[in-house]
Amino acid sequence: MSIINNYQPIPAVLERIANGYASQRKFAYNLLPLYQAEVARDSYKVAKFGKDFLKTEDFRRASGAEPKRVKDNIEGWADIATYRYTVESAVDRGDMVTAEDVVKAGLLASERRLTRAYERLFNSIEVEQVKAVSDAAQYPSGNTSTPTGNNAWSHESSDPVAQIQKARQAVKSKTGFYPNKMVISDPVWQVLRRKDNLLAHMPMTSLKTGLTPEDFGKICQIDSVIIADNMVNTGQQLDFTWSKNVILAYVPDTIYTLDEPVFGITIRAPLGYNAMRSYYDDRTTSDVVAIDERIGWSVVNYEAGYLFKNVIS
C-alpha cells in the first residue's frame, strides 16, 4: 500500500494562509523587513552601504563631453542564501467521522493546524534573527553599549535619552542616515514608561498613564518605536525573545529593490505551483497539506544599527 496517493492542489482557503501568513507583522520585520521576491533563487544579492552618495559632482559639461552619471550608494553585495522549509498539516479522517459535515470539519482542522505550523515556523525564524541582531561582536566599534551601574536604564538617575542620542550619532557618522526604528524589549519598556526623569518631558496627563511609544519616539527623535513583547518556550520556562535589549537601526519604510541600503532583510521566494500540494497518506489515514517555503535573511549592514545590551538590571 502506498503511503502517498493522488497529489492535488490545496484548497483556496489554505492557499490564502500560505500566501498571506508570512506578511503578518513580526517584530523582527521592523529591523529585517520582508521582501517578497518575484523570482525563486537559491541566493539573492543585497546591497551593502557605501558613502559615494554623499560626494559632490560637477555636472556641468562642455559641448561634446560625456555627461556625469549618478552612482548608487553601493559598496558591494552580500549574498543571502535561502533555505527550504516544509510546513505540513495532517488531519486523520478517523477523527472526523462524527462530524455533521465531514468535509467542512476536515477543512477547518487543516486551517487551524496549518496556521499553527506557520506560527511555529516564523517564530523559530524570528528567534534566530533576534540572536543575530543581538550579537554585539558583529557590530562595528562604537555601535554597542551595555549600560551598568548608574547608567543602567533601571537606575533612577540614568539618562537613556542621552545614550540614545549618542547612538543616533554613531549610526549617522557611519552611514549618513539617522536610525529611524527602535525595537525595545517589553521588560525594558515597563521600566522606561514609568521612569520619572522621562515623564518630566511630558504633560501632566502622562504622569498617570505613563509614556507611550510615540511619546518616547518624539523625545528620542526616532520615527518608529516598537515594543517587542513576544515570548519563547525554552523548554523549562517562557522567556522574552528580545531579552533586555534595545536596538536602533536605519530601515527604509518600504523595500522596493535589493539594491537599497538597509540594516537587514528577510527574503521570501515566491510559492511555485509545485510548492503547495495536498495528498492522502495511507499509513496514517490522513489528509495532508504540504507547503515548501524558501526563505533567507541576514543583517547586511551592522553599521546601520546600534545595540544596547542588557540595559536593565
UniProtKB/TrEMBL annotation:
<feature type="region of interest" description="Disordered">
    <location>
        <begin position="138"/>
        <end position="159"/>
    </location>
</feature>
<protein>
    <recommendedName>
        <fullName>Phage major capsid protein E</fullName>
    </recommendedName>
</protein>
<dbReference type="InterPro" id="IPR053738">
    <property type="entry name" value="Lambda_capsid_assembly"/>
</dbReference>
<feature type="compositionally biased region" description="Polar residues">
    <location>
        <begin position="140"/>
        <end position="155"/>
    </location>
</feature>
